[in-house]
Amino acid sequence: MSTRIEFVDTTMRDGNQCMWSATGLTTPDVLAIAPTLNRVAYHALDFTSSTHMAVSVRFHREDPWERIRLVSAAMPDTPLGIITTGMRFISWVPAEEEVMRLSFALVVRNGIRRFQIADPSNDPARIKRLAAMARAEGAEEVVVGLTYSISEVHTHQYYADRATALADCADMDRLYLKDPGGLLTPDAVRELAPALLVAAGERPVELHSHCTIGLAPLVYMEGLRAGLRVLHTASGALARGTSQPDVLNTARNVEASGYGHALDLDQQAIVSAHFDELARAKGLPSGAAQEFDAAYYRHQLPGGMVTTTRRMLEELRRPELFEAVLEEVTQVRAEMGYPIIVTPVSQFIASQAARNVIDGERWHNVSDETVRYFLGHYGAAPAPVDPEIADRVLSRPQVRGLADLKPLSLDGARERFGARISEEELLLRLTMPAEQVDAMVAARDGAAGPPLPAARPGRSPVVSLLQELERRPSLTRVAIAAGGDRVVWRRA
User: Fold this and answer.
1) pTM of the entire structure?
2) Rounded to 5 degrees, what angle do the CA atoms 41, 47, 50 make?
């Protein structure tokens, strides 16, 4: 019997983020295909993050808790997952442990079963702390991640050491190598795999990469040969490009390499077609195969940040500066001590690079979040920061106020936001602008009219039923009763 490979679907979260700036999918778009997606037999869905929850509120006036509840109910056989990056929820301001525990408890209450734990600096102690919190608040599966990067600090030995430091994590069900920049090569994954497998022991190791420079499909096959057994893939228009490899193509590669899987590819073809049609209906881009680009290793921006940076420059009416900003990212990262380019630090680096290019004077304007990075609020930099840049940033007038900035706390939250609102709404009001949450509440409660329908409604339930009956020759008669009506189907 061939070794069975598991798949994790990333379409709703990472695919949407990389290809459509996290704004492309609405709850009806997702819900329309959820029952079909449930039948594909994924191990789990990489479904949401606090950033995506905020996007639901800000751009679509949708209740993100409702999206989790509805999709979880429509997909009872497939665990929905959330990714969390450090001690923060929605806001860039770090949160007290009580806030994080509440956020974890609430996503579990509403239907999240799997947590992917990442940390911007791969700090084993912080990762273990978050994993323990997720388990304590009800997570069924905790996946501990190491985020891949390349620098003078981020060597293969660096990752071997951190994997070893995570080996005794009692709350880790799985270990995963997260490559947001699509930087992994076949040689690199082959060299990294032994340390990951030793650290995981009997626990599975998952592989997550992006197609940004075209290497991810090859990396996945080399990962399988090296002993990794779980692959992260996306569907249809939200695959390839800067997203993950396409699931249908990856499944064919898995089969051709002598491995097995449990995916129902007929159902998956319907899922892929759904997202292809959404792209056409909304005028959104579809992921295309990328050619290898060695220059990409200089800036290393993750797929989602590439899309977001393009959008930001277009909104500023300066799209011609995109290549210059990418070049500036390389220098800014070095001056900041080579942090891993992953949320939230990737946003700080990209926005600072854009400011430097647009202003014409480097480090003339600096965001509060970047100041707080230099103050150490996001952990120690992997390498020493540039002392001249640090002096310039830390001499800015806003430093005094930011140095004393307190983490988000629940103290006094009920008095500020009201005793009668739900804990879910309380957490949104604590972390988001009031006018955005007000607009969401008005839309949810009907003041702003009914929610928008899906851009492409899901396949008719009758058609789905008939297709399922055709696939099950052992069924010769089915009777359906509803109210006073009764329909009987017999095989000819």
Assistant:
1) 0.86
2) 165
